[in-house]
TrEMBL record:
Keywords annotated in UniProt: Flavoprotein, FMN, Membrane, Oxidoreductase, Pyrimidine biosynthesis
Cofactor needs: FMN
Job description of the protein: Catalyzes the conversion of dihydroorotate to orotate with quinone as electron acceptor.
InterPro entries the UniProt entry points to: Aldolase_TIM, DHO_dehydrogenase, Dihydroorotate_DH_1_2, Dihydroorotate_DH_2, Dihydroorotate_DH_cat, Dihydroorotate_DH_CS
Family under the similarity heading: Belongs to the dihydroorotate dehydrogenase family. Type 2 subfamily.
Protein name: Dihydroorotate dehydrogenase (quinone)
Pathway assigned to this chain's UniProt record: Pyrimidine metabolism; UMP biosynthesis via de novo pathway; orotate from (S)-dihydroorotate (quinone route): step 1/1
Top class in the EC scheme: oxidoreductase
UniProt subcellular location: Membrane
Reaction equations catalysed: (S)-dihydroorotate + a quinone = orotate + a quinol
Amino acid sequence: MIKIVSKIPFISSIFRSLYQVNDKRLEREVFGLKFKNPVGLAAGFDKNAVLYNELANFGFGFIEIGTVTPRGQEGNPKKRLFRLKEDQGIINRMGFNNEGLEAAINQLKKNKGRLIIGGNIGKNTDTAPENYTTDYLECFKALHPYVDYFVLNVSCPNVGSHAKLNDKEYLEELIKAVQQANDTFENQKPILLKIAPDLNTTQLDEIITLVSETNLDGVIASNTSTIRDGLKASEEQLTSIGQGGLSGQPVKNRSTEVIKYLSKKSGRGFPIIGVGGIHSAKDALEKIAAGASLVQIYTGFIYEGPALIKAINKEILTKSL
């Protein structure tokens, strides 16, 4: 609908006048990139990079496309996306459904340059563990000319053979391989790691060490959760839904705790993009106060609509953050 409506003359300019907040005080320079405001759209919404030009009209400072895998894949069987309306949450087990690298590049060639684009990359579900790095490198090299920063998605709970992606030694190997590929380009792009909210303090300490040892450009905290504690949804409803990653309000506090821990323990040693349960301007400011340099929305965008982006940017200006 957004795609169709945006084709009507003057509609895009109406959207811009309704939702965009243009103010120099909102600008942020993070990992060498200049963002016109700190509010982004998280990966998973515009998986195949078909909507980012239209979504730019809603006031985002940046949009992350993907997760992109080398080959297109169907993802998990449907039904695989469920709203928990009482909890203001979503459970998904999409399984990296996307049209693949070539399709994403064809769409990114249409970039009108309105805002910063991130490329979230992953492996194909049927890729053997010994070839994981090859998948990431294929995506990285092919997308390099078309995106402004990269995210290594190693924390999605909906992909097969996931354990290796959480192993510190393998992560170190993967990051170094991608960094070496980055060095072959004239213009190097920032590389970030997206982590799960379910990590314990020992695992978070490992992430801090990993970022320090590899000179990684930043971390996105956090992905979806597999924990179902404290939900209003009934056990019966949750059983009928089954497995998947939980996002939205139920993960808000945990993702903020992760941001706060990483920021404090590392002495604000690296930039953090805060994501998880941002449904209001207050939620976004909590993430920034915890140590996030930028924030991303997804489930909040589904429930609250584009007015949420404007509300966050307006509140940031009010607080002069």
